[in-house]
Amino acid sequence: MKSKKLFVAAALAAAAGLVSLLDASDARACGGCFGEQPSVVTDHRMVLAVSQGQTTLYDQLQYTGDPKSFAWVLPIVGQVDVSVSSAVMFGTLDGATQTRVVPPPRNCPPYPSNCPSQRGADAGAPSAAGGADGVDVLKSEVVGPYETVQLRSTDPNALNTWLADHAFAIPEDTKPIIGQYVTEHFDFLAVKLVPGKGVQSMVPIAVTTVGASPVLPLRMVAAGAGASVGITLWVVSEGRYEPQNFPFFHIE
Fold first, then answer.
1. How far apart are CA 207 and CA 59, in angstroms?
2. DSSP codes of every residue in 20-39
């Protein structure tokens, strides 16, 4: 098992739309906050665990504001399994992957010029069956401190209306983003805190889908975000992945 730690600036993420990793097929997303009252997401830490059989996104976010106004929407493909995780996992990964700088050995041999490339295939587009007119509720359940509902719609206006009717405040500049996800046949996972639960009750959420899907759209991360949002992503898989459409580097 190998992991790679990526740091993505929030402004860059919101502008570019998604992070795709080589050898990807479908797409998953980092969601946006749409509470009725002013709130701020200050930090996202995510783990994307990828295997041939399934992909799980573990998402831990830091949030300031009234817990009654916490509302999070995540684009998904098809129905997903939702569960909660633990902050211990993120703390362990963070401690194990801290950057360490060591002096290079002296008199290093030159780097071979004929090393093969490790690049893989390009990422494919997401696919999912479209829903009927209006909004279909695919699944509704309470998971830990969260009320969750999975939605499908072919009409962005109907979806925005449903979210607004259920206390998800959608900014005008975010509606076209939601519309684009609908056009791309995404479904949506909507999450709120159970009434009476405080921010201190928030725990990382885990969203599991079928198949290997190391693609992370980020267009909706700007919703409810502060002026500066730290995003840390660990990719844990059976092989090595690297960003396809974001600058990156590695040191030999």
1. 8
2. EBTT--S-----EE--SS-E
